[in-house]
Amino acid sequence: MKNVRLATLIFLTLFIVCSFIKFPAGSIKGTVNPPDGATRAWAISATDSFRSVINEGVFVIPDVKPGNYNVLIEAKPPYKNAGRDNILVNEGVATDLGEIKLER
Length: 104
Prior knowledge:
Elements: H1 2-20, E1 26-33, E2 38-44, E3 49-53, E4 58-64, E5 67-75, E6 82-89, E7 94-101
Parallel strand pairs: 1-7
Antiparallel strand pairs: 1-4, 2-3, 2-5, 5-6
């Protein structure tokens, strides 16, 4: 019985400690051309999604968990949405997509 209580106490302690640990995240950044052609940038994976406002053609999606993402640029008419697939985000690294040109 003591072993079960000890194991439960250890498990609960680890659970509580891990709940407060923030694992290092990365980010995704880039520019959109034309600068006023889009409103938001999205990073989407199988389990998570993150978004950022595009300001003067520049976006940064912060606190992205490490993994593979599809990035979607939400365009304003008359432009079409644009995207990039299989973007790898590593912990603590800003993944730069460079310039994304929007088409009409």
